[in-house]
Structure prediction request, 315 residues.
Amino acid sequence: MRKIVFTVTTTLLIGIASTVLAMPQSHITSTKEQKLDDQFRQLSRDTKWQQKEKIHLQFHAYHPQGMTRIGDLYYMSSVEIIEKPVKYDQPKDGYDRTPGKGVGHLFVFNKQGKLLKDIQLGEGIIYHPGGIAFDGKSIWVPVAEYRPNSHSIVYKVNDETMKVEEAFRVNDHIGGLVRDAQSGKLIGVSWGSRKFYEWNEKGQQLRVKENSSHFIDYQDCEGVGQGKMVCSGISELPNPATDYSKPYELGGLALLDMKRLNTIHEVPLMEFSPQGHVITRNPVFLESAGQGLRLYAVPDDDDASLLVYETTNLK
Prediction:
């Protein structure tokens, strides 16, 4: 009798394993993406985030902008400011400030915070990288002038070879970029994310749309599958507690429909960094983690740390 039971159990286990192995990868990915979508919609103002890790970055981070994670490696864009732009008293040649000087970086580091590679991006006064995203093949990095209504170069970087390729140029400041792996289209946000742009992979502009949400300015966005993306960022608000000398940073996350370019769900975040910045100020990467969500952030400049937060108290 024991032998018969053992044989049946083994057959069942083999059958289950075969089903899992035979399951298309696209179905597994789709299920994971749907889970993140569902979990994000359960976030609220009452959601509690707990810091799980603080990984000191063993390099000068400058002013981080965008981040994505591929396996055990992190890719983070950052701007090294050599000379800050200065605002004009009156606009000149369509600009409200000087171009300044700087260097654009794409850092690659491991989970111990050790720098593995520093790729410099941009040219001349185009030196300010924005939010980045990985589409399964390439890391997309926009690099712009450090002023609104200016110019940008969109690069794609091979995550295996680290080969950099210029994809196209845009006559505006592009502060973040996402590629929809299903349609192949690219979505970008302007300075302060007041406009959405849509292009094909060759850089042909397909659409421009005003951002209907004024809750936060998007700093970093990432495609999460099924035609959706998650964006993070801040709004700097007047702060009477500091006699208005230092703004209050309201942080937040937003889930957006990439086809309609509208907001599906958005929530504030009220966690702050060791330097006193809201954690969505700079780059953010969000992923599903079991029954909850995991958030990676580098909110501080220069001597910075990768902060890892988790939440499980979803409604």
The helical segments are 2-22, 25-40. The longest helix spans residues 2-22.
